[in-house]
Amino acid sequence: MTETCSCPTEAGNQVCDLPAQNFEQKSHDEGYCLECGEKGITIEGQTIKSMLAVSLRELMDADYLFCRTETCPVIYFSSDGAQTFTYSQIRERVYQKEPNSEDVNVCYCFGHTVGEISNSSPENQDMIVNDITSGIRTGQCACDLRNPQGSCCLGNVRGIIKLTQSTAT
Question: What is the pTM assigned to this prediction?
Answer without folding.
Answer: 0.79
